[in-house]
Amino acid sequence: MKKQVPASRFKAECLALLDEVAETGEPIVVTKRGRAVAEVVPVRPARRRTLRGSVTVHGDIIAPVLGPWDVER
Question: How many domains, in total, are found in the chain?
Fold first, then answer.
C-alpha cells in the first residue's frame, strides 16, 4: 500500500517529502478529507536516444552536389 499523507502535512513538509520520494523511489498519495487528490512519484531518467546506425551514406558526402555542367550561366 502506498504511503498516504494529508494535504495539510504535505504543505508543511513538502520539501522533506519530495526528498523522501526521490531517495526511496516510493510514491506518496496526497489526500484531502480522506480522498486521494494527488500522487507524488519519482521522475524516471529520460532514455538517451542515439543516432548511431540510423544514418546511411550513399556516395561522396564531401563533393559538390552539382557539377560544373549543371550550373546555368
Answer: 1
